[in-house]
Amino acid sequence: MILNKIHLRNFLFFILFWGGHFFCKPLFSLQSKCPSEIKNPVLYKSPHFKDTTYFVMFRNRGVQVKLILPEKQMKGMVLLLPGWNLPDVDWSAKTNVCSKALSLNYGLMFVEMGKSVYMDSFYPSMRKDYKFYPTRTWLWDTVIQPVQQYGWFVPGSNSFVLGLSTGARGALLLGIEHGDCFKAVAGLSGDYNPLLDKTDGLMVNTLGEYSKNAFRWSGTNNIFLRSNELNCHTFLAHGENDQIVPFAQTNEFWKKLQNGKFEKTLLSYKQSILYKAAFGKPKNRKKLWFLSVKHANHDYQFWDYAGQKAIDFFDAVLLK
After folding, report:
1. Element (H or E) spanning 110, and its range?
2. Contacts of 180 (CB under 8 A, 6+ apart)
3. Which residues touch 284 (CB under 8 Å, ≥6 apart)?
4. Does the reported pTM lie above 0.90?
5. Which of 299, 249, 254 is CA-nearest to residue 273?
6. Does residue 14 sit within a domain?
7. How many domains does the chain have?
8. What is the pLDDT of residues 149-181, one digit of tens each?
9. Residue 123 in domain
10. What is the CATH number of the domain that holds 53?
11. What letters, b where the CB count within 10 A reaches 16 and e where it falls short, cover 228-245?
């Protein structure tokens, strides 16, 4: 049901006069059902609104959430997660990923995560200024769950998540912890196993020194060690010349995931190789693609290229 002008005025009044937890309902509506009851959600396009921005409270400040919709009826919704201290809208400003996704009729959701490392919670040993930024638990509970009423990010929906750098950590962790609500996940230049470098500054400042907090380095935030919990289609990409996050982070994770025969496809861009495999039980195999680019770095040139390939992967999953 599309909101009429009265509903819109009421919504704006709600935003202006209530500073607590809120979310908007400007775009879509389904029949009144709990998310768990929506078996085949349908996403409706509103002719009156396209782009919508609103704020969700985190530690007494508003975190910006932005929705961008395609011109035609959506066939899926993609959550785009930024890297550490990178603007969420860089996905749109510095790559063609968003324009490609919109042209293929995907809706887009951005969340301003700041310097988040997508942990599940804050720890006593965490650097104080890191606690100013959201966790993935907050992202799920406070941002994603409220929009499930529209049929997004619920079991059976065409919902996806794509992240770059630390955002790739967030994407894979959401896939591990809420895999039934995502058709597929994609991570570009991600770091998945902190144990590969126990002196990494970002992890030390987040998890604490390894010698004093070894259990955290091997705990719920170690994606590599939780790989057997991943149960949705997965796209991975990494530049072999990455000087920020070692190529080994994705390469080792890929090797741990794929447990069968795989085919590889040579691409034309900077000696790219796209490996295709599958993982999971034989009756319910999931697609697994790994894009390796020989001369690529930890930058938007690579994320533009790999991100568009991730959108192709989402389309391939839907065709399946």
Report:
1. strand 106-111
2. 155, 231, 232
3. none
4. no
5. 254
6. yes
7. 1
8. 989 999 999 999 999 999 999 999 999 999 999
9. yes
10. 3.40.50.1820
11. eebbbbbbbbbbbebeeb
Name the nearest CA neighbour of 170 among 215, 138, 142, 125. 138
Which residue, chain included where needed, has tokens 């919109």? 102
Any residues with CB less than 8 A from the CB of 165 and at least 6 apart, and which?
82, 83, 84, 86, 188, 189, 190, 191, 244, 245, 298
Query: CA 317 → CA 105, 130, 227, 235, 282, distances in Å?
Result: 15, 36, 20, 10, 17
| C-alpha dihedral, 110 to 112 to 113 to 114, nearest 10° | 140
Residue spans of alpha helices (H) in 189-299 = 201-207, 210-217, 247-257
Both tokens of 58, joined, read 């985190």
Query: Collapsing DSSP states into helix, strand and coil, what is residue 107?
Result: strand
Whether 288 is in a domain gets the answer no
Backbone angles phi, psi at 68, to 5 degrees: -125, 130
Does residue 297 surpass a pLDDT of 60? yes
In a domain, 272, yes or no: no
SS3 content of the chain, % helix, strand, coil (to 5): 40, 20, 40
Q: What is the pLDDT of residues 223-238, one digit of tens each?
A: 999 999 999 999 999 9
Distance of CA 293 to the CA centre of its chain: 21
Residues in contact with 288: Cβ distance below 8 Å, sequence separation at least 6, in sequence order: 233, 234, 235, 236, 254, 257, 258, 262, 276, 277, 278, 279
pLDDT above 50 (res 8): no
- Please enumerate in sequence order all residues whose Cβ is within 8 A of that of 88, keeping only pairs 6 or more positions apart, or say none: 64, 66, 80, 81, 82, 110, 111, 112, 113
